[in-house]
Amino acid sequence: MDNRQEETLDPDDWAEARTVAHEIVEFAVGHLGGVRDRPVWQEMPPEVRAAFDRPLPEGPTPLTDVFREAAGTLLRYPMGNIHPRFWGWYMGAGNFTGALADFLAAIDGSNLGGGNTAAAAVDRQVVGWLKAMMGFPDSASGTLTSGGSMANMVALTVARNAMAGVDVRRDGVTSLPQPLRFYASDQAHSCHQKAIETLGLGSRALRLVATDGDFRMNLAALEAAIAEDRAAGWRPACVIATAGTTNTGALDDLRAIEAICRREGLWFHVDGCIGALIRIAPRNHALVDGIEAADSIALDPHKWLHAPFEAGCALVRDRDRHFNTFTLHGDYLEEKPRGLASGEFLADYGFELSRGFKALKIWMSLKEQGVEKFGRLIDQNIAQGAYLTRLIVAEPSLELMAPTAINIVCFRYRGAGGDEAQLKALNTEIMLRLQEAGTAVPSDTTVHGRHCLRVAINNHRTRTEDLELLVREVLRIGAELAA
Q1: pLDDT for 22 beyond 90
Q2: Model confidence pLDDT, tens digit, residues 369-396
Q3: pTM above 0.85, yes or no
Q4: What is the pLDDT of residue 410?
């Protein structure tokens, strides 16, 4: 060693660090407590945007100054999904306890790839709770992921290996005796195509099946597709049923699809990233009957469990197939009968070896609130979707664009009418003005070739008065633009 002083990233003055930490917590309480009084979203002014173009800092800045810069720039211009009138795309609203848990998880600092640690025990317990919510047996397995896209990727990888007929891990997809075919509705999320492509099967391996008038997978079309593909030399492998489509919230008939899969010898996967957790809702749980029979499920605790981003989960009924799809240990990760490297390695059930402690925010929130309250909040959002639908149907200038199955409402302002291009331009401008005014954030989509506004009510802070305000503002802005 030379005579230079050894350094650390710990504070020089822990008392000063405690003062800054208290200031941050005070800010956080005010930020969440006053969320309703702020704009949902606002454009960053040029001087704030320029702050993010500053060069790499070479020297130190006091933590107090760093925090105050973040509070004045970053935290003043968020996405807005914690706001009660954020209904864009499909976002959870987070919760204060989950935010505290993320802080504690970072303080704990554990890497959840594996190891005999309390953090790993919490992770396993949370996966066990999610299995119980879905009606899966204790013998099933699961892994927490970054979100729904990765949860589906994990599950579809297990499905590919299980249905391949060869050892894909050893011989690769070029050894397949027949090309595999996966089926999903034409309303399925785009992550499935990404997953199929990444798995080396090619986008042609995913066959999109037509939907009915309620945007549910057409069962006769599914059966016909399976028969046609089998006759043409494909190997039908997996049906991806959707419990809550992204566009409209439609729920495929899970029981009927499960029966087809069993009869045809296919893997039954459910993309439940939107709607799987309806199973814990006291009034609406029957909407996802059959999900408990799936071979695998993808779900998102950062949606209807309102865990702060990010938190997804893949559940697999057959633990051995799941484990055998991913387990791999280098010499540097040899398991031991006792000590830190003993016990189950969580990385044996997914792609990631380095894994953050995302289980804690789910664990603490469920401990604090209880699963029954989360179920009631799901029922509340579904009831709010139905209420907004009634408001729209009662207004002659508004048009409902799709049946409201759960909590996603698709509609548009028609006013005096116009062709499709005019109506798209009109409704796009309405959406942008709502966002830029900070009033509300809906998103937009296309349903049966027709553009519309889309409101996804996945927010525990939303009240019926917020939905009434949305309708009033859409009518007001629409009338101004039409005039």
Answers
A1: yes
A2: 999 999 999 999 999 999 999 999 999 9
A3: yes
A4: 98
Three-state SS at 312: strand
Burial of 194 (0-12, 13-18, 19+ CB in 10 A): middle
Beta strands of 162-246 (E only): which ranges?
Answer: 180-185, 206-209, 235-242
Question: Into how many domains does the chain fold?
Answer: 3
Mean pLDDT computed over 352-371: 97
User: What is residue 237's predicted lDDT score, i.e. its pLDDT?
Assistant: 98
Residues 202 and 304 in one domain: yes
How does DSSP assign 363-428, residue by residue? HHHHHHH-HHHHHHHHHHHHHHHHHHHHHHHT-TTEEE-S---SSEEEEEE-TT---HHHHHHHHH
Q: Which of 239, 237, 302 is nearest to 271 (CA)?
A: 239
Give the pLDDT band of residue 3 (cuts 50, 70, 90): low
DSSP notation for 34-96: TGGGS-S--PPPHHHHHHTTPPPP-S---HHHHHHHHHHTGGGS---TTSTTB-SSS-----H
Q: Are 117 and 159 in contact, with CB atoms under 8 Å apart?
A: no
Residues 421 and 454 in one domain: yes
User: Residue 165: which domain range?
Assistant: 101-370
Residue 32 parent element (H or E): helix 14-33
